[in-house]
Amino acid sequence: MRVGKLNWDDLKYVIDNHRGLKREEVRISNGIGEDCAVVNYGDYECVISTDPVTGANENIGRIAVHINCNDIASCGVEPIGILVTILAPPTATLEELHNVMEEIHEEALNLNVEIIGGHTEITEAVNKTIVSCTAIGKTNKNSAISTSGAKIGDDIVVTKDLCIEGTSILINDFPNECRAVLSEEEYKEAKEYVKSISVVREGIIAGRVGVNSMHDITEGGLFGALWELSKSSNVGFKVYEQQLPITNITKKLCNRFNLDPLKFISSGSMIITCSHGEQLVKEFKKNGIKGTLIGKITGSKGIVIKDDMELEVDPPEADELFNI
């Protein structure tokens, strides 16, 4: 099989046909584009998400914490705890495991999150260390925001710059190739990208302001996330390529590795849809967060405007990272 996520049709079949018994306490179940489950506990809801890190070799502990806490934040909810599973090959050293857990510990402290459980195992079933986390958040009843809430006419806002995570992975896993096309200042700047892959602050701000839907941009990049959001909400979208926030550093590296930045893993950015995009961007700016209006939610089809041409966005395939 092809490396990366299952294609959209295969994944939808697997999810739709293997859900177990439906429980009345579960208000929202995971699904295509819906990264969190929401379970009702009376006056409160528990928000839960889980994800592994498989595409990176460096900073895997940091990335694992953030991609899972980002999912919780995409519901407008603050994460409170994580469970950590580490599967390491026999070639791993105790020092390497300590380093991974130190990264997880540091990022958990930064996010005010407690490490509440997990599992660590040495196994021949993997050829490199895999870290998978489950994150948990708590909020008031019926207040968690879903991916499926986008409405026709909504503004589409993205936070920070696209491809933050992907660029960070390239810098750490392929340093020599990156140095060949970046200046020393650019290289040092890109090394800092890993510190920006959390979207917890903007998720909580957006939840407070009030928005219709949120989705963090992970594997498959912007186009993958927009596709998932549109299918989850049964809507379309129209975005403008010239308005998409991509740094020159990222553009240089994508050219070097022949990658499409719009299909490149982008933890650190979030898609938000709402009726008051400009107001939301101003609120982000007041809090030191970059927000960019990139388009609108429409009635059907996913469209990107490029050089005054309307191009239809195809269903997401494997992330560009796996093409290296």
TrEMBL record:
Question: Which top-level group of life is the source organism from?
Answer: Bacteria
Does the entry feature the keyword Transferase, yes or no?
A: yes
Identify the residues that the record assigns to the PurM-like N-terminal domain, covering every copy.
33-138
Gene3D superfamilies under this entry? PurM-like C-terminal domain, PurM-like, N-terminal domain
Annotated GO molecular function terms are:
kinase activity
Alphabetically ordered keywords of this record = Kinase, Transferase
The chain positions of domain PurM-like C-terminal read 151-306
The family note in this entry says: Belongs to the HypE family.
Q: What is this protein called?
A: Thiamin-phosphate kinase
